[in-house]
Amino acid sequence: MTFLNGLHHAAIIASDYPRSRDFYTRVLGLDILMENFREERRSWKLDLALPDGSRIELFSFPDTPPRPSRPEAHGLRHLAFAVRDLDKAVARLTAQDVAVEPIRRDPYTGARFTFFPDPDDLPLELYETA
């Protein structure tokens, strides 16, 4: 039995903080909990809320290296968001000119899902839940 209670947050470092801030708040519609500029690190930290109580922490840091993404690299493979209506979620993203992959079906669960990139090409997934 695990001692873990759930996922508290995922942390993302943006190469262009204003562009990523706009993407996560306006395009994805996440609510801002707190935003702070950390002078000593020359870094923004933005806390964003998801409806289930989990969070995304969006950071900026000066001179960050690019993330190796494709082919598959060690580390975080993707971040998946649960959605109740995948078709509506895809329509919302495509209306914002976000490139969304074709919808697929998980061969083990039968659930539908798709992927799309954030502004830094971090792979994000929408996974349809009941």
What does this 3D model show about the protein?
This protein is an alpha/beta fold and 130 residues long. It has 2 domains: 63 residues, 2,3-Dihydroxybiphenyl 1,2-Dioxygenase, domain 1 (Roll); 54 residues, 2,3-Dihydroxybiphenyl 1,2-Dioxygenase, domain 1 (Roll). It is built from 2 helices and 8 strands. The strands form 2 sheets. The protein has a 4-stranded mixed sheet with strand order 1-4-3-2, with helices on one face. The chain has a 4-stranded mixed sheet with strand order 5-8-7-6, with helices on one face. A hairpin with a 5-residue loop joins strand 7 and strand 8.
Summarize this structure briefly.
The protein folds into 2 domains: 1-63, 2,3-Dihydroxybiphenyl 1,2-Dioxygenase, domain 1 (Roll); 77-130, 2,3-Dihydroxybiphenyl 1,2-Dioxygenase, domain 1, CATH 3.10.180. 16% of the residues lie in helices and 35% in strands. The chain is built from 2 helices and 8 strands; from the N terminus they run βαββββαβββ.
